[in-house]
Amino acid sequence: QLHSDQDKGDGSLKYILSGDGAGTLFIIDEKTGDIHATRRIDREEKAFYTLRAQAINRRTLRPVEPESEFVIKIHDINDNEPTFPEKIYTASVPEMSVVGTSVVQVTATDADDPSYGNSARIIYSILQGQPYFSVEPETGIIRTALPNMNRENREHYQVVIQAKDMGGQMGGLSGTTTVNITLTDVNDNPPRFPQSTIHLRIPESSPVGTSIGSVKATDADTGKNAEVEYRIIDGDGTDMFDIVTEKYTQEGIITVRKPLDYEIRRLYTLKVEAENTHVDPRFYYLGPFKDTTIVKISVEDVDEPPVFSRSSYLFEVHEDIELGTIIGTVMARDPDSASSAIRFSLDRHTDLDRIFNIHSGNGSIYTSKPLDREVSQWHNLSVIAAEINNPKDTTRVPVYVRILDVNDNAPQFAVFYDTFVCENARAGQLIQTISAVDKDDPLGGQKFFFSLAAVNPNFTVQDNEDNTARILTRRNGFSRQEISTYLLPVVISDNDYPIQSSTGTLTIRVCACDSQGNMQSCSAEALLLPAGLSTGALVAILLCIIILLVIVVLFAALKRQRKKEPLILSKEDIRDNIVSYNDEGGGEEDTQAFDIGTLRNPAAIEDKKLRRDIIPEMLFVPRRTPSAPDNTDVRDFINQRLKEHDTDPSAPPYDSLATYAYEGNDSIAESLSSLESGTTEGDQNYDYLREWGPRFNKLAEMYGGGESDKDTS
Asked: Transmembrane segments in this chain: where (predicted)?
């Protein structure tokens, strides 16, 4: 209540209020000066308010006293319960922790005034989670209350914590929160194999690195505490197998370390150990943190391919060996217990020229064609070994054949030498330096010797002893008019065994040279130019010669094309053939071109007979052609053609109609040609064809059928 000393109680003064909350939260009675609160005041919103009050004359509105300031302080009451910042807390603690291990601290706040009574004094207690956890009343720290809590038994716990003000006394306000506590894993469990013995199987043909199977030890822990490393610590197969730890699945993968052989060993025993890689020293007393198991591996038999005694073979052989010489032998065996026989063969894709062959039974490789180091120094073969009982099961091995050199090639000139000598050359003058090459390759290197095949009065050869030689003149002066070209045989020999030599001929032209020895002209025709033969005439002569050569070549080519093809294309085809000449002329009646009777046997009957193979268009009286006298030229021609056919390799090896008509005298079978069909009268009897064998059965049926038809009719 505000009151002014000037207030006489007659209502002449008026009280006014200003400041925090004036007119809203606080109002003043302008007549009495009483201050009232318009609503409930919350200290937690504002603890004090500063106000100003003044008394003024109601009529003049002038202050009668100076303005005064005063503070209204709000006294606290316990109207707020403790609250936690989080409704749910999450915490963790390692399993097997000792009693009293701190888990987490929770803190509640109270909006009441901590300096006024016990309204803000908070006490913590546990409503849920006993007997596993406890909480400190003053601090709110949650601690473990039981020893050796095992995560493998129970992993998650829910604890409810209460915070109560007024020091936890009756009538105090409270708030709660939930704490979810998880036990984290520690390595307190060793790995354990579920079986004491594990059986695995693998075929003996499995290559190195093949996975046989897996073993796994179980561990109740998780994460890195459950990581296990596997190793083979004992057994009779420690050198044959490996074990690798698979980190994702924590399995031990057993693999093949060396090739297996069923015939050598069929069963292996391994002792495999699994051990934790991260061991906590605090829990050594729970160990040992490892376990062992026995793994038995059975090797299964398979039909294996043959095995060669070596991975590759190298044979060396001289190039001059005789055909059929054995250059080496490959060996292979069947690794199976049945021990099947082996058959060897050569892969012909590696020996396209079929230079080598192999004995299928013992694997001996021998030559079937001559060897030549200068053609091919190495031959890379592939030998195939297959079981006779199972030819599809094969093995290959490379065979390298090195051809050793033999001195079988004579040295020759290195290049073609265009040698000339000047007409004004002096004795002892160098006109050419020659060298040689040899296809052979002796171990000591090439060494050649040069000499003349015979003493030459004009030139000589001087060996430089460095595989070269010099050609020197032996006399002064040469003349193109006398001799324009000299041929000088030079003998070149090597020093290997056996000594090989060859003779190379140098063509030495005589040329006109200047005083410096430079060649000016070597043509012998140049001497005739002053006589009046021009260059144009020489060119014309050369053109004529070229044209004549072309004509001769064309004529020879046409003659070759017209040469008849062999009647028999295969040596094995000895059947009767009907040869078609495709050019039969005008027939027997065509006598305008020549008299066919000239080609016939003079002793043959010349009477014209009717042909049986065609129907005559008209009846005519056969006329007799006078016998032609014996023509010597025709007989010589026929004999010449007969001799050519006897020596011709393309001629058939049996009787056939040649291009000449003279067939000789008194043929037993007479002529089967239609050319002679008109020389006999009436029908002939061809029954004798059946007596000539099966090759003439077809002719016998063709010509003898008519008679049989007549008989049956």
From this structure: 527-558
Q: Contact, 622 vs 658, CB < 8 A?
A: no
Burial 149-182 (b: 16+ CB within 10 A, else e): bebeeebebebebbbbbbebeeebbbbbbbbebe
DSSP annotation of 492 reads: E
Whether 372 contacts 360, CB under 8 Å: no
Nearest to 356 by CA among 329, 324, 312, 318: 324
One fold for 13-73 and 197-300: yes
Per-residue pLDDT at 121 exceeds 80: yes
Residue 579 has what pLDDT? Answer: 53
Give me the chain's average pLDDT, please.
81
CATH of domain 197-300: 2.60.40.60
Query: Could you read off the pLDDT of 547-591 as tens digits, one per residue?
Result: 999 999 998 888 877 655 554 444 444 444 555 555 555 555 555
Instruction: Could you list the beta-strand ranges (E) of 514-617.
Output: 519-521
**Threshold 0.85, pTM exceeds:** no
DSSP 566: P
CATH number for 13-73: choose from 2.60.40.60, 3.40.50.150, 3.40.1650.10, 2.60.40.1600: 2.60.40.60
Report for 146-160, 585-599, 673-687: range of highest mean pLDDT: 146-160
Give yes or no for a contact between 652 and 568, defined as CB atoms under 8 angstroms apart.
yes
pLDDT digits (tens, 9 = 90+) for 254-278: 999 999 988 889 999 999 999 999 8
* E strands, 286-325, in order: 290-300, 307-308, 313-318
In angstroms, the CA 369 to CA 364 distance is: 16
What pLDDT is attached to residue 89? Answer: 94
CATH superfamily placement of domain 307-404: Cadherins (2.60.40.60)
pLDDT of 642 > 60? The answer is yes
Q: In 3-state terms, the chain is what percent helix, strand and coil (to 5)?
A: 15, 35, 55
Range of weakest confidence among 17-26, 103-112, 355-364: 17-26
Rounded-to-integer distance, Cα 180 and Cα 157, Å: 6
Pairing label, strands 459-463, 501-513: unpaired
> For the residues 522-529, what does the mean pLDDT come to?
54
Give the pairing of strands 88-94 and 35-37: unpaired
Using alpha carbons, select from 246, 287, 252 the residue that is nearest to residue 270.
252
Q: Which fold has domain 412-521?
A: Immunoglobulin-like (2.60.40)
Contact 489, 452 (CB under 8 A): yes
- Residue 521 scores a pLDDT above 70: yes
Residue type, 357: N
Domain ranges for the chain, please list them.
13-73, 88-184, 197-300, 307-404, 412-521
Instruction: Judge whether 419 and 429 are in contact, CB under 8 Å.
Output: no
Q: Does an H or E element contain 548, and which?
A: helix 535-561
In this structure, what token pair is assigned to residue 400? 């390298």
Question: What is the secondary structure of 205-234 as a DSSP string?
Answer: TPPTT-EEEEE--B-SS-GGGG-EEEEEEE
What is the DSSP track for 362-388? Answer: T-EEEESS---TTT-SEEEEEEEEEES
Element (H, E) at 271: strand 267-276
pLDDT value for 623: 44
Please give the Cα distance from 234 to 291 (Å, whole number): 13
**CATH fold for domain 88-184:** Immunoglobulin-like (2.60.40)
β-bridge pairing 501-513 and 419-422? parallel
Q: What is the tens place of the pLDDT at every residue in 201-239?
A: 999 889 999 999 999 999 998 889 899 999 999 999 899
Q: Is 501 helix (H, G, I), strand (E, B) or coil?
A: strand
β-strands 174-184, 88-94: how paired? Answer: parallel
